[in-house]
Design goal:
CATH architecture of the domain at 373-518: Orthogonal Bundle
Strand content: 15-25%
CATH class of the domain at 373-518: Mainly Alpha
Oligomer: single chain
CATH topology of the domain at 373-518: Isoleucyl-tRNA Synthetase, Domain 1
Structural class: alpha/beta
Bound molecules: 5'-O-[(L-methionyl)-sulphamoyl]adenosine
Length: 716
């Protein structure tokens, strides 16, 4: 039986379309899966989408469509992006899949029957965007930087508190590996509680102090909405209310239900792949994966995943790239812009080529585990330096010399060991680094081999040797040695650059690289190579140099995708810094805009009467965040908004339905008149007014800020 390797990505929420943050984790998992298959392991690579929960339900309401349809659309956009990028997942799971839902209910039932889940009442602060309860008074700022909502619910509770010591012991003894070390320490300190404030502590098996009771039981059901998997019998009939299973219990279980947990017909698959070898996650969801998930498994009597590796965040414009901040970079922008460098290819191949570029950049640029800034400039610079001038140029110039001097036949030579130590060092370095998910080190090792081989060629100057017939053997040795190194380099780079290395493999005359991988020919790279009279394939340029045009294309594409017009067609929100957020002439637009009386061209000096500062200060203008935005039945003009002022939440009716897609408003900061007397419209109370500029023929443009402003802040 070959060794198995089961690797997973988080399953992504379907409240936003994918951006390069999601692509980052997926690429990392794909690299490991390709490498694992290359090493001949029985590999299972799982990704998918997380489709239940209040956040998704609210986004669907805001988009005016049923949650299932909403989830179908966004999930399809993830799948089609992964297809464009050639991601080689073995399975795509959706938490709305019936088999997954059955598996989750099975897990819940098992926990309930083992006495690990009980029914109780709770009032607490809930952070909707992170789908978790947090400690603190009403209005506490949640992990997403927004005030929490007060929620009182009768809930089923999981006895998480029981697992404090077992988890500490498992993590400290490395049975549950958490990488990098900093994340492991963070989890341990969360598990240990505050041990230094003089209270009574206990000791773990390895002698580490912890504060008993620091880990509280966890609520694992919800009653305030129903977009989720129903709590199954026998637990369900112990309560009058309809409970759905907590979205994180539902989501985490995907890693097991995907391989057959809860399905009697798939027991073999489950036994073959579970436990997972590696969960790759972003650092913000470490607690869910390293505390809740292993506790659920321990409680259910199931084996734990072997390792959880967390990476850092891709930052853009200095903060975490995310939908709610509106500072995302879409992967499609990079596929289209770099794809255009290869006009001779069809679109599908252009995408795969460009996906290689993004893979290389993300893994090379940002040490896995740390946060890193994404920038188009850096992407372009890295591409030119290491792919166009580095690897690509090395392959092209070496193979061209063989074509010119040996008619495309790789010359024979007795002694070709001159680069052996550089190649074996690179093989070992890549192996070691990828085993520990140190992608940057692995790619650096490949870049180092490019430099060594380039240096070797420059040192021996085959173009000079070619001019002297007495040096023909030496020329043969130099070119064969370099070509052997290129073969190894290409195989090493295969998981990172699957499209381009396939082309290089063909140029080397070695046939299909993918087939060689499938046939297990690359499990040991020092074996195999070129036979006698090996002939090169057809040569073609690999990485054309990119110039400012590529940069401009990327920047333009991103600007277009965040413009208000594009925003209407996409779920990706406008940034808060779109031009319409900084109106030229600010006005308090009526809730339902007044008919226009001035066109943009006609705006002259207004003849409104003067007011005193005291008059002005009577108007309480505040920054608020839109939590919910939805159309009002039978009204073309009105949207119903729920906004959060930090200290309270309000319902506001705004006459902007013809101009704003509700989906694009959720998460956006707006300015409201907070002390306007409430009034009723269409039977609903409007508790304030949104401030907008009236532009052109009266089109409202919502006021906003270029900076990230704390909600509730007063304008004066
Ligand atoms: N649905 C949960 C995960 C459940 S797993 C059982 C979730 N989804 S998410 O859509 O918010 O995706 C989060 C993951 O996407 C991160 O953990 C990370 O893998 C990736 N990233 C999303 N934005 C990112 C960055 N800006 N930077 C790096 N990775 C990011 O959480």
């Amino acid at each position: 039986m070959p060794e198995k390797f089961y690797v997973t990505t988080p399953i992504y929420y379907v409240n936003a379309r994918p951006h390069i943050g999601h692509a980052y984790t997926t690429i990392a998992a794909d690299v490991l899966a390709l490498r694992s298959r290359m090493l001949g392991r029985d590999t299972w690579f799982l990704t998918g989408t997380d489709e239940h929960g209040q956040k998704i339900e609210r986004s669907a309401v805001a988009a005016g469509i049923p949650p299932q349809q909403f989830a179908d659309e966004v999930s399809a956009s993830f799948q089609s992006l992964w297809k464009r990028m050639g991601i080689s997942y073995d399975q795509y799971i959706r938490t709305t899949d019936p088999a997954h839902q059955r598996g989750v209910q099975q897990l819940f039932r098992t926990l309930y029957e083992r006495g690990e889940i009980y029914l109780d009442q709770y009032t607490g602060q809930y952070c909707v965007s992170e789908e978790m309860f947090v400690e603190g008074p009403p209005g506490t700022i949640g992990p997403d930087g927004r005030p929490t909502e007060t929620v009182t619910e009768e809930n089923f509770y999981f006895r998480l508190s029981r697992f404090q010591k077992p988890l500490i012991d498992l993590i400290e003894s490395h049975q549950l590996a958490i990488e990098p070390e900093s994340r492991k320490n963070e989890v341990l300190s969360f598990l240990r509680g505050s041990v230094s404030d003089g209270g009574e502590n206990l000791l773990s098996d390895t002698g580490v102090a912890y504060r008993p009771g620091a880990l509280k039981d966890l609520s694992v059901s919800r009653t305030s909405f129903d977009w989720g998997i129903p709590v199954p019998e026998p637990a369900a009939s112990t309560t009058q209310q309809k409970h759905v299973i907590y979205v994180w219990l539902d989501a985490l279980a995907n890693y097991m239900t995907a391989v057959g947990y809860g399905d009697p017909d798939r027991q073999d698959t489950f036994n073959r792949y579970w436990p997972a070898d590696l969960h790759l996650v972003g650092k913000e969801i470490v607690r869910f994966h390293c505390v809740y998930w292993p506790a659920f498994l321990l409680a259910a009597g199931l084996p734990l995943p072997k390792r959880i590796t967390a990476h850092g965040w891709l930052l853009f414009e200095e903060s975490k790239m995310s939908k709610s901040r509106g500072n995302i970079v879409r992967t499609e922008t990079i596929l289209d812009s770099f794809g255009a460098l290869k006009p001779e290819l069809d679109k599908a191949e252009q995408d795969l080529f460009a996906a290689d570029v993004l893979r290389y950049f993300l893994l090379r640029e940002i040490p896995f585990g740390q946060d890193g800034s994404f920038s188009f400039d850096a992407l372009l610079a890295r591409y030119n330096a290491e792919l166009a001038n580095g690897y690509g140029n090395l392959v092209s110039r070496t193979l061209k010399l063989i074509e010119q001097n040996f008619d495309g036949v790789i010359p024979e030579s007795g002694l070709t060991t001159e680069l052996t130590s550089a190649t074996t060092a690179a093989i070992t370095a890549v192996d070691l680094a990828l085993d520990r998910q140190h992608f940057t080190t692995a790619v650096q090792a490949c870049a180092g081999l490019v430099t060594a081989t380039d240096g070797y060629i420059s040192e021996h100057a085959p173009w000079k040797l070619a001019k002297d017939s007495a040096q023909r053997d030496r020329l043969a040795t130099v070119l064969r040695t370099a070509t052997k190194a290129i073969r190894i380099l290409t195989a090493l780079l295969y998981p990172v650059l699957p499209y381009t290395t396939e082309r290089v493999w063909q140029q080397l005359g070695l046939g299909s690289l993918r087939r060689a991988v499938e046939n297990g020919e690359l499990t040991n790279l020092t074996h195999g190579g070129f036979g006698p009279n090996a002939r090169l394939g057809k040569l073609a340029p690999l990485f054309p140099r990119a110039d400012k045009d590529t940069l401009t294309r990327m920047i333009d594409a991103e600007q277009k995708s965040t413009s208000p017009e594009a925003g209407a067609q996409q779920l990706a929100p406008m940034t808060e810094a779109t031009p319409d957020a900084a109106p030229a002439s600010s006005a308090l637009a009526e809730v339902v805009p007044e008919p226009p009386n001035q066109s943009a061209q006609e705006i002259g000096r207004p003849d409104t009467p003067q007011i005193t500062i005291d008059d002005f200060l009577k108007v309480d203008l505040r920054v608020a965040r839109v939590l919910v935005a939805e159309r009002i039945p039978k009204s073309d003009k009105l949207l119903r908004l729920e906004v959060d002022l930090g200290y309270e939440q309000r319902q506001i009716l705004a006459g902007i339905a013809e101009f704003y897609d509700p989906a694009n408003l959720v998460g956006r900061n707006v300015v409201i008149v907070a002390n306007l007397a409430p009034r009723k419209m269409r039977g609903l109370e409007s508790q304030g007014m949104i401030v907008a500029a009236s532009v052109g023929d009266g089109t409202p443009a919502l006021a906003g800020f270029l900076d990230d402003i704390e909600i509730g802040a007063r304008l004066r």
